[in-house]
Specification:
The chain has six helices and twelve strands. It is an alpha+beta fold. It has a six-stranded antiparallel β-barrel. Strands 5-4-2-7 form a four-stranded antiparallel beta sheet, with no helix packed on it.
């Protein structure tokens, strides 16, 4: 057998070492793009309400300028120190939009408001033609005020009571028969029933007058809320059945709708304070309050909805603006 020398053994070890290095280099080149892509595609963890103290300290160290940049270019400096969840897009809209129609079919006689007019709750907006209903209400009212039947039946009752008293006295003196006494007493009882019937008819006439007034009132259309007329869809002379005559929007308070990620579910509750910043030029911080937080998460998007109410007593803020909302935890 041939025996190899020390030089050959040393060359063999070098070749094995170089082969191992090449194998590791090839494997590293194959795996490097996958790790880089995974690092790039991994989203940052969202900031949760009530974050750990180290996150709060780090945010404070970064400075208020960075926070304002995340909340949007129009976000002013926060008015008070608080921690919470910041920088979610929202939309400001009217709290309620009502389509006002008519409870009865009829011809529109007059519409008393126009688009952009402010109306108070209970204010008359429109009237339908009501000539027949007005006449019926007057007749019913006159019938309800008539009291002749009650008075005449009371007079008959008084006369019957007097005749019964005399009949009893004469019967005790053996001047009249028992049949005559019973006849007089029956007439007195019938007179009393006539009084009750007249009173009942009088109460029924009062109810009919109230019904006629209600039918007339149904032809007067009033606003159920205070707000602005945003659309007028019909004109006087048209016949209304189930159509919408006017649309009225309530702008105090305003309503803001925001979609939050599922990681915040259970962290936002009705009554929680929030800060809303509308888009320019009305980009000032406004205080709002959470009204509704959905209790069901949308599985397709992994989000849930939150509704906030924004006081607007002077109606200075219009509906329809985009905004940014921050949920505060004072």
């Amino acid at each position: 057998m041939m025996s190899w020398g020390p030089a050959h053994e040393q060359r063999k070890r070098w070749l094995m070492a170089i082969g191992g290095v090449l194998v590791f280099a090839v494997v590293g080149l194959m795996l490097a793009p996958g790790f880089a892509r995974r690092e790039r595609d991994t989203p940052p963890e969202p900031a949760l309400l009530g974050a750990a103290p180290e996150h709060t300290a780090r945010g404070a160290a970064e400075g208020g300028a960075g926070s304002r940049h995340r909340a949007g270019p129009a976000t002013p400096q926060a008015s008070h120190a608080s921690t919470g969840v910041h920088g979610f897009d929202c939309m400001i809209g009217p709290n309620v939009v009502i389509e006002i129609g008519s409870p009865v079919t009829g011809l529109i006689e007059a519409i008393l408001v126009d688009r952009s007019d402010y109306v108070e709750a209970g204010q008359v907006l429109a009237r339908l033609e009501s000539t027949v209903e007005q006449a019926a209400a007057r007749v019913a009212q006159a019938r309800a005020q008539r009291n002749v039947e009650v008075e005449s039946s009371q007079v008959s009752l008084e006369l019957g009571e007097k005749r019964r008293t005399r009949a009893v006295e004469l019967f005790e003196a053996d001047s009249v028969s028992l049949d005559l006494r019973e006849e007089v007493e029956t007439e007195a009882n019938l007179a009393a029933l006539e009084v009750e019937l007249a009173k009942e008819n009088h109460r029924l006439a009062a109810l009919q007058a109230e019904q006629a007034r209600a039918a007339l009132e149904r032809r007067t259309i009033r606003s159920p809320i205070s707000g602005f007329v945003i659309e007028r869809l019909m004109e006087p002379g048209e016949v209304v059945d189930e159509q919408t005559i006017l649309r009225v929007a309530q702008t105090d308070p305003l309503r803001a709708e925001v979609i939050l990620p599922s990681q915040l579910f259970g962290r936002v509750h009705p009554g929680d304070p929030a800060e809303i910043i509308p888009e320019a030029p009305l980009d000032q911080a406004l205080r709002a309050e959470v009204a509704i937080a959905d209790r069901v998460i949308d599985g397709a998007s992994g989000t849930f909805g939150v509704r906030l109410l924004l006081p607007n007593p002077d109606h200075a803020l219009p509906a329809g603006l985009r905004c940014r909302v921050s949920f505060l935890s004072d």
